[in-house]
Amino acid sequence: MGSWDASRVRxxxxxxxxxxLDRRRxxxxxxxxELAPTLPEAEIRTxxxxxxxxxxxxxxxxxxxxxxGPAGPCHGLMPLTAxxxxxxxxxxxxxxxxxxxxxxxxxxxxxLTEPFLISEQE
Length: 122
Known about the structure:
The protein is built from 5 helices and no strands. By secondary structure, the chain is mainly α. It is about 40% helix and about 0% strand. It has helices spanning about 5-20, 30, 40-50, 55-65, 90-100.
């Protein structure tokens, strides 16, 4: 697998931020086109060991070479090791984040094995 060009990713984020100064793009107000610092290899290995998982190679290299979230599509990437800085009482996702960070939780089989259809109520 090839390596990320971190400077190119950061340049692209800066360009996107300049084009969206009012943060009107969906999720931009959450991630603000910013990246958290990268994680050292030892910290990534500890995360994988604690949770009994192996991160996908592309994601693993991204947090090691580019940044540990949050900039990304929509509301951005969830950081591996720390809650999002903008998280507060209103963020249901952060409650889930804490639950998903319990040792072994991420190694459990994904519960949804078939499409989940939401019906509209009239």
